[in-house]
Amino acid sequence: MLKRDYLIKQFEEFGKVLGAILGLKNEGNLSQLNDMIREAAQKYAASEIDFVEMIPDELLLSTLTDEKKLTDEQLKMLGDLLFEKAEYYLASNAPETRSLNCYKKSKRIYSFLKEHATINFSLDMHYKLELLAKMGL
């Protein structure tokens, strides 16, 4: 019961952070947006987002699950943050390869969670997977 309560609290906190990230994105406040994504990745997924971006695609899941020992909940949050980081790269006119890299990694995480996760598959992940598929990823 304590673990469940902790997870609910974590998801509620993360939802607020995600809302703030979306607000910064809508305002066009890109430097704060990038900082908030980095801080959230460290806090909620115990990972440096820059490190995750550099992991080769074929090693992503094994690195995150076997080496970093991330839980399904942490993977979900990291997938969301990678998706938002891709959006950040698009908004900041970074090279397209940077946004595509983050989109691909978020898709890989979402697909893994859809097939193997102990958490419920969310409507949010479903829509993001559909969007990524329409993008040809």
What can be said about this structure in brief?
This protein is mostly helical and 137 residues long. 80% of the residues lie in helices and 0% in strands.
Describe this structure in words.
80% of the residues lie in helices and 0% in strands. The chain contains seven helices and no strands. It starts with a helix and ends with a helix.
| Average pLDDT, all residues | 89
Structural class by secondary-structure content: mainly alpha
Q: How much of the residues is beta strand, in percent? A: under 5%
Number of E strands: 0
CA gyration radius, whole angstroms: 14 Å
- Shape, per Cα inertia axes: globular
What's the N-to-C terminus distance? 39 Å
How much helicity do the residues have?
Answer: over 70%
State the helix count: 7
For the largest beta-sheet, the strand count, sense and barrel status come to: none
Order of H and E elements: HHHHHHH
Which spans have pLDDT < 50 for at least 5 consecutive residues? none
Provide tags for this entry.
single chain, 137 residues, mainly alpha, 7 helices, 80% helix
Layout: helices, strands, pairs:
Elements: H1 2-27, H2 30-45, H3 49-54, H4 60-67, H5 72-91, H6 96-116, H7 123-134
